[in-house]
Amino acid sequence: MKTLLAEIRFHRRAALALAFAGTLTAAATQPTLARPGDGPAEVAVEALMNQPELPDLVMGSPDAKVTIVEYASMTCGHCKNFHTKVLPELKTKYVDTGKVRIIFREFPLDPRAFAASMLARCAGGEKSLPMISALFETQADWAYVKENPTPKLFEIAKQAGFTQESFDKCLTDQALLDKLTAIRTRAAETFGVSATPSFFINGKKLTEPPTIEGFDKALEPLLK
């Protein structure tokens, strides 16, 4: 517990310091893919759906029979792969047909991931999910580069309507940073999330690979 709390405090300090300095030059680490044995195999749906800090980012009908909760880091290559290669087909097959809804939750693993998540949240309303998609699409341009990624992040943010003032204000929002930290802390301590991406399907952790075939195998029995 102490190790986790110390890590969280580090990320909070690092994210704020980097944001205020306007550099974000710390090297991003590559998160690992969640393994089936990591954390509990199933969590209480009521607890999972209780996320009070920030409104959930939801794709799909509230009446869908199945709910997928994804925990992801914006600097995670596996998360990018899911969002750019798997999610489009998953959305067409299950979300657009009203069978499944998907909830995106933040699990930032480094200062740049915190910054990107903050910007997506500050975009607000219907702009948050498209901005998450844009950040994943351009991940190679800002997540792992050695140079200052702030100009690239601002370039992406401008497409969502940010000004320099609103961009700077977002990245120095202590309250927002605290809320994202709380979401990550609960995911780790209550639901056993330790790597990204992690998926819970009606409370059960996805043990199949996060491919369309893996989701087919997990979803079809629930949709009969």
Major sheet strand order: 1-3-2-4-5
The count of helical stretches stands at: 10
What's the CATH topology name? Glutaredoxin
Query: Portion of residues in helices?
Result: 40-55%
Low-confidence stretches: 1-8, 19-23, 25-37
Sequence of secondary-structure elements: HHEEHEHHHHHHEEH
The radius of gyration is: 17 Å
Mean pLDDT: 87
In words, what does this structure look like?
The protein is of the alpha+beta class and 224 residues long. It has a single domain, classed as Glutaredoxin. Helix content is 51%, strand content 10%. The chain contains ten helices and five strands, in the order ααββαβααααααββα. Strands 1-3-2-4-5 form a five-stranded mixed sheet, sandwiched between helices. β2, α3 and β3 form a beta-alpha-beta unit. α1 packs across α4, α1 packs antiparallel against α9 and α4 runs antiparallel to α5. The longest helix has 20 residues.
Summary tags:
single chain, Glutaredoxin, disordered N terminus, alpha+beta, 224 residues, five-stranded mixed sheet, globular
